[in-house]
Amino acid sequence: MSIKLGVPSKGRLMDKTFDWFRARGIELSRTGSEREYAGAVKGVGGVELVLLSAGEIPRELAAGRIHLGVTGTDLVREKLGRWEQQVQEVAPLGFGQADLIIAVPGCWSDVDTLDDLDAAAAAFRQNHGFRMRIATKYHRLVRDYLRENGVADYQLVDSQGATEGTVKNLTSEAVADITSTGETLRANHLKILTDGPILRSQATLWRSRVAVTSGDEKVAMRALLNKLG
Amino acid sequence: MSRKSEIRARAAKLRAQFEAAGAEVVETPILLPAEVLLDLYGEDIRARAYVTSDALRGEQMLRPDFTVPVVQKHMTDGAEPARYTYAGEVFRRQEDDEARANEYVQVGFEVFDRENPAAADAEVFAVIQNALGDMELRAATGDIGILAAAVRGLDTTERRKAALMRHIWRPSRFRALLDRYSGRSKAPPTRQALLDNPEPLVHGFPDIGMRTQREVAERIEALREDAEATPISARQVELIDTLLNVRETLPFALEQIRDLAVDMPAITEAVFRLQERIGALADRGVDVDNLSFEASFGRTSMEYYDGFVFGFSVPGRPDLPSVATGGRYDALTRVLGQGCEIPAVGGVIRPGLLVELGAQL
């Protein structure tokens, strides 16, 4: 058997991951037709490429179905409880940088910090009869962060995409999302709270602490990790 | 006997004891409408309770405790006064500690009685303590009502008092607010910039979302007023700190808090209640001279308790959860009662821990 390496199956994240490995003498490529999710590895033996959605890679690592995987810090922390015990960071890859932040409408002149958000949430609940809604797909990370910082009277509403538009569409009052340049937030008339990001994320190569490796696989893993430096 | 049936047997025995103490047995559903719990506890409950859903009833939660369904039951068809007991599983998400059970049995005893709160507090404590038998446990008590009275008595604006009250169960936020209001810490630069801005509503952003510009203006007005308010005096902060640090056996704690009441007359009423409770506990045969009182007890873990609180833990085993906990939750009945309210106090035991610790039946 061979070591299984999970890589995002499409887009910039896949291309950049291929570039990163190429710079270290390992050629990853998709094989077959444009639409087929199969891949090949050259430059090191005993390694098999598995193309997956970036969002599924944390789960596959935690289940031990892949030995190595490339995905963002944000997804690992959001999806895996006690993540340190399930995966180990091998190397940050230096791309896919993004911050998980909380943003509110720019027209809220009175809100710049979490402290303000908490006070505004209390008043909002009194005025509107329900808790201030924060749209996000990072439920665990955001909830833990707000609890640690003593923010109350809010609720999280699920948003799996186009999150920045939810305020204007009146389905949320604020958002918690990943941003790299802040451009989409600005375009949607939102501003970021000044307390600093909830999390700084980037594409990272992870090793599963759970996946079982046979003798052959151990040799292949050592050879691969040596090449990666 | 398997571990599970051992726990069941122990639970049945405890419930029978509570029945003998005058409680009526109640059964409650396992699936509860999520809305009620969310409204009561806020988003934090999602981190502690399992949520499930179907297309017809929407979101449901697996019962994280019995308090809410028992209060609801009492509010709809209960006679007064009432005593209830129940036994069954509760479910808690445990995402950070595999060693903690996510499903365990609780047996509870609850008293709804307007007549004599001190006697009801003492009754619940004594009934729970008796049910625990001669196990070697460490009992601790507290009283959130004393801290609440101290906050209400602060010499400051109503708005500041309300903000402190709202965070009484979040000690670090409470501390940050107290530091701010007493001038010990400075407001962040963004706040000063806002206050210095003569036209804060001219911001160049379109008005989006449900929170209106009027609400923004109201808050800015409130912040301007707040900036003018006299800081809470260092003396008053010191009194709150001294109160929070009281950690003594009951008679000494009473003495210390009584001394504090000389400078904090607002807590006088609460001190009388503490005194009455000590008397009522002694009447029930509780060894009050050796019972510990911690003014901060229950502040982090028991949000809906607003008066007397207590817990029984295993000495030398900080890894284990409490074997029994309880307290007074008058405010909760107000929230769930839709206009009605009734003073309520109760406690629960975890029979699973008793079995694990090998306590004799």
TrEMBL record, chain A:
Gene3D superfamilies: Periplasmic binding protein-like II. One of its GO terms (biological process) is L-histidine biosynthetic process. Its EC number is 2.4.2.17. It comes from the Bacteria. InterPro entries: ATP_PRibTrfase_cat, ATP_PRibTrfase_HisG. Keywords: Amino-acid biosynthesis, Glycosyltransferase, Histidine biosynthesis, Transferase. Residues 54-226 form the ATP phosphoribosyltransferase catalytic domain. It is an enzyme of class 2 (transferase). Pfam families: HisG (PF01634). Pathway: Amino-acid biosynthesis; L-histidine biosynthesis; L-histidine from 5-phospho-alpha-D-ribose 1-diphosphate: step 1/9. It catalyses: 1-(5-phospho-beta-D-ribosyl)-ATP + diphosphate = 5-phospho-alpha-D-ribose 1-diphosphate + ATP. GO terms for molecular function: ATP phosphoribosyltransferase activity. GO terms for cellular component: cytoplasm. Catalyzes the condensation of ATP and 5-phosphoribose 1-diphosphate to form N'-(5'-phosphoribosyl)-ATP (PR-ATP). Has a crucial role in the pathway because the rate of histidine biosynthesis seems to be controlled primarily by regulation of HisG enzymatic activity. This is ATP phosphoribosyltransferase. It comes from Shimia abyssi.
From TrEMBL, chain B:
It comes from Shimia abyssi. Residues 14-351 form the Aminoacyl-transfer RNA synthetases class-II family profile domain. The keyword Transferase applies. GO terms for biological process: histidyl-tRNA aminoacylation. Keywords: Glycosyltransferase, Transferase. One of its GO terms (cellular component) is cytoplasm. Gene3D superfamilies: Bira Bifunctional Protein, Domain 2 (3.30.930.10). Homodimer. This is Histidine--tRNA ligase. L-histidine binds at residues 65-67, 92, 106, 110, 299, 304-305. GO terms for molecular function: glycosyltransferase activity; histidine-tRNA ligase activity.
